Structure formats: C-alpha cells, structure tokens
Amino acid sequence: MKKNTINVKELEEKASEDTEGISSMERRKFLGFGLTITGLFLGGSVLSLTSSNPSFAGIRGGKALVADYPYSPHYTMVIVQNHCIGCERCLDACRTTNHVPDGGYRTDILERSVPVSPDENERVFMPILCNHCNEAACVRVCPTKATYKDKKTGIVRMSIERCIGCKTCMTACPYNARYFDEAKRAIDKCNFCVDTKLKESGGKITACAAACPANVRMFGDLTDPETEAYKLIHAPGKALWVLRPEKNTMPNVFYTNASLSSAH
Amino acid sequence: MITYIATDSNKSMFGNLIPFLIGFALLAAGGLSFALHAMYVGHHYTFGTTREVPWGLLVTPYFFFACMATGLCIISSLGQVFQIEAFKSLVPRTVFLAVVTMATGLMCIMLELENPWRVGLYSMLSPAPSSNIWWKTTIYSFFLMFMVFNFLSLVLHKEKQARIFATIALVMVLMGILNMNSDMSLLGTRGFWSENYMPIYFVTVSTLTGCATLLFFGWLSKINGGQQESEERRVTNKAVSRLFMILLFGLLYFSGVKVLGGFFPQATQNPEAMFLLVKGNLSLNFWVAEVGLAVLFPLVIILGMKGKNEVWQAIAGLSCLVGCFVLYYHLVIAGQLIPHYYQYHVVGLPEYYPYSPSLHEIMVSVGSVFFFLAAFVAGEMIFKKISFK
C-alpha cells in the first residue's frame, strides 16, 4: 500500500502560492482598475499616439504558449538552472565565437543567494542572455528598426548600419542584455549565434549551449517535438518560469530545475 | 488683431550686446567641442554612462529645453491662437524663445547620440511607427519648422498666416509632450515614471518652465531696454505671474504625490525609484531642488510680492528653472539606478547602480545652456532692429 507522505523534492519544484508571489504588475492593474472606476484614469495609452503599456496580455510563458508559436523554427532556450556549476565555459565560447570585445558580454552567469529558510541561503547560478521576447521592448522603442524580430525565427537581431546609438533599447531592456560596441558603433547582443555557430550547425545549437558540460543551456525549436527544449517545456507537471514576468515581455528563454534524481 | 510688443532704443543696462553674444557663442562652442571629441573617441571613454545606466546627464537638457519650448508654445498660443488679450503682447518673443529652446533641445539630443549622422537617413528610410522616440523626434522637428514659419510670418506682419502655423505647432507640440510620457513609461521595464498622471504632469511642468522663462528672460530683456514699461506690459506680466502661481500649486500637488509614493509604496507604480528619490540617495536633490527651488521658494515669492516686483519674480523664475532642471535629471536617472535583477538576491549586485556625469557630459550641457543664451542675446538684437506693431 502506498504511504501517504509528503514528497519534499516535488514541493520544492512547485511555484510559491503565497501573497509574496503576486507581482507588482498585478497590484498595479488592480490599482489602475480602481482609478478607472473612480474616473481618475488618465493614462498615456488614452492620450498618446502609441500605448504606454507594452502589453497587458498577461504572462504567457511556458505552457500557455503551446500551439501558439508565431515563428518557424521558433527558437528557444531552456536553462536547467540547478545544473549550472558556474564554470563560465559558455561565456568563453560566446566571446570567441561572436568576437565579443573586452568590457562587453552577450551572456553572463549571475550568482544568487536564495533564502531557503530563516537561517539558510542556497547558492544558485543563473545564466542570463537576451530573452528574444515576443513582446520585446527593445524592438518597439528603436526609432530606426535597427533592432528587429526576425520574421522567420523570432530571434531579436541587430541591423548595425541603422543603429543611431540612442541606447533607448538598452534603457528599455529589463534583462540588461545589450551593450554598445564602440568598434562596430552599434548595439551588440545575443542573436542565438544566428550568423556563427547556429549557421554552422544547421540551426541546431548555439556556441554557449555547445560548450556547456552540464547540459544547462538546452537550445531548441518550440515547433519541433524532437528537440530537448521542446520536451522540457512540454513535459507534464514540469515547473518552468521566465525572468521578470511582471514586465510582460513574453520571453523565449525559460528556466527550470531538474529533479535531483535526473541530475544524477 | 494681434498687438505686438513695443520695442524702443531705451538705454540698455548691458550696453552693447555684441560682446555678450560673442562671449556666449565662444563658451557654447567650447562646451560643444567636448561633444565632438566624445563623438570621435566614443562615449564609452568620455561619458559617465554605462551598460546599466545608458542615459546620462545629456538627456536632461534635451527634456528640459523641449519641455520649455512646449510651455512657451502653449503660452504664446494663449495670445495668438486663443486670442486672450493679456497674452497677446508676449507672442513674438515667446515664439522666438520657443524656436530657440527647441533648437537647443534637438541639438542636445543629437550630441547625445553615438551616430547622429544616421538619424536623418534612417528615420526616413526605416521609420518605426511603433517607436515613441521616432514620433517625438519627428513631431519636434516639424514643430520647430512650423514655429520658424510662425515667427517669420510675425516679422512680415502676416498675422492670419502666423496664426495657422501657431495652431499647427500647438497641436504638434501637445502630441509631442504626450509622447514624452510614453517614452518614459515604455521604459517602465526599468522602473521609470509610468504613473497614470504623467501626461498632465508633463503639460504642467512644461507650461511652468515656459512661464518661468518668460519671467526671468522678460526681466533681462526689460533691463536691456528691449521692452518698454507700459500698462500693457504690466497686465501681461501680471497674467504670466498668475499663471505661474497656479502651475506652481499644480507642481506642488505632483510633488506631494511623489512624496506619498516615496513613503507608501502602494501609492506608486514605481516604488523603488520613488523611494530612491524621496528617501534614498537622491533625496537631498529632491527636497532642495525639486521641492525647494522649483516650487516652494518661487511660490513664497509670488504669493508675497503679489506680482508687483519684477526683480523678485525674475528670481522666482530662475529658481524654478534650476529646480525643474534637477527634476528632469531625476526623471531620466532615478529609474535607471534600480538594478535589473534587484529582486533575485544576486550576489555582488549593488543596491543601486552608480552614475555620475563626466566632465564631457557636464561641458556639453553647459555648452548647450550658453548656446541658448547666445541665441537669446541674438534675439534681443533682432528685436531691437525689427519694429513690430
């Protein structure tokens, strides 16, 4: 007979449902609703030529995007966060492959100290890169379309000859994914190695993903069920999250944790 | 019929204006040469801006002068478009100042760009209607053109034509200022001022800076002998002073809203930035400049003098302008100082990103102010030569 016990590992993987999990955007929407009712709402979206709200479509990362992929191939990356050991081979591979100058970076690894109990913190490595958002703030603010969504793949790319160097995209990006390359006199950013490693590999893998010894960065196509990224995103019961979901940018980079058994 | 401001050849307190013009022009050129140097070697080596804080001090004079031009246009339209008698005599000088301030603002933003030479080409070849920046720059460029036409029409005494240009410019500048809000709120991805009241706030502050400009530079013009003492001038001055007072109360209200947001996070859409502004590292600037210099000090003067002392009104105007410059600086900077991943317990992430303007940024900003002053002096010389009705 099966014992009625609590599976701690399973619980750890689930998203918190306490009130702290309510995003500031949700609180703001509630406040905005109140202001609308009282007739005080005078938002930029009412008076401006273009709306001040990038998107209020809600967070549609992960499962909610199934069967609604606007690109083909729809490139994505799943970061298996607890696999990352912070070796930085991905960073080196990115620099070498894409000729990233000193002082700049397309991807980085942040070290987090996550509180797990009142007296205990857990160290976690969190790789970051351009999220190639479906509702990319950088694309929307660019006055010359120097940064754009690739119509086929959804990759956020740069047309460097059009870049006027206003740095509005850098200011708008909530993920600190862009920098100004003085040599190119244009913004540089992760493009999923579309003109380098991805091209060489026939659209299969990026330099950072190829260099990772721990299978942290799972690159794939959201429309191809054969890719590992697709399988991770569509695995039943798998907890996935995106960074800064309150910004409603609909990222294409997802984060997950592998269960300890599969990690071994 | 529009009655234009009277000019005469009264004795100027400053005497010959040419040395002032040359001096200001040289200072402007000196300051702006720093911009050319920065453009040549790259902003990375000359500006205090970083990957994390990409917009620095130089965006401030752009906002400041563009908003000032907006305010001046609104005030001139009271006399020119809406035919309010008390504001009619202000029209030529206000239109001229609006042209000069917008030109200064656009010059500032061009100097802030890494590749300004690409702007004209790609804003036409590759326009981005989804971009508020594109709309705003385009609108402001057309505004400048229509205001130049407006001024030339005034010089040629073609009042009807001038009024048409003024109406178009007013509509354009209002669209521009409302997009200024969207510029900033789009950047709400970084905790900028995406507050619901911002469109009204921008119109208020713009018109306020317009009034402050008229009070200060109108007084300078008077002591320079460019404006004759008359009953009409007294009425106009009183009207501007009253409008200034009302708008000061408006800004006082908005400052109160900011303070509320700083103390009660649930009252704002940008709690981190508001905290930084009201109680954090920027609080000294906020309380001294945004509250003290921009609102309280001018308000006390205006209420105390009741529009009777022009010197004190000019001081109130100057104080308000300085305070509003700091206000715009905060508007640009505060939201950017909040780290991107502040809620992720990142090891080694600073509480706030550091930023301080570099010598180049300061010199270019100072240069732009002197550019405006040189243009103002040139305007005074023009107004002495050209006889308006």
Explained architecture:
The complex is a heterodimer of chains A (264) and B (389). Chain A has 264 residues and is α+β, with helices and mostly antiparallel strands. Chain A has two domains: 10-53, no CATH class; 54-263, Alpha-Beta Plaits. Chain A has helices at 8-13, 24-37, 44-47, 89-98, 137-141, 168-172, 197-200, 207-211, 228-234, 260-263; strands at 75-80, 108-117, 120-128, 147-149, 156-158, 178-181, 186-189, 217-221, 240-241, 253-256. A four-stranded mixed sheet of chain A has the order 8-1-10-9. Chain A has a two-stranded antiparallel ribbon with strand order 2-3. A two-stranded antiparallel ribbon of chain A has the order 4-5. In chain A, strand 6 and strand 7 (186-189) form a beta hairpin. Chain A is globular and about 55 Å long. The model of chain A is unreliable at 27-67 (pLDDT under 50). Chain B is mainly α. Chain B has a single domain (18-385), classed as Formate dehydrogenase/DMSO reductase fold (Up-down Bundle). Chain B contains 14 helices and no strands. In chain B, helix 3 packs antiparallel against helix 5 (91-112), helix 7 packs antiparallel against helix 8 (159-186) and helix 9 (198-223) packs antiparallel against helix 10 (231-263). The radius of gyration of chain B is 21 Å and the shape is globular. The chains are: A alpha+beta (264), B mainly alpha (389).
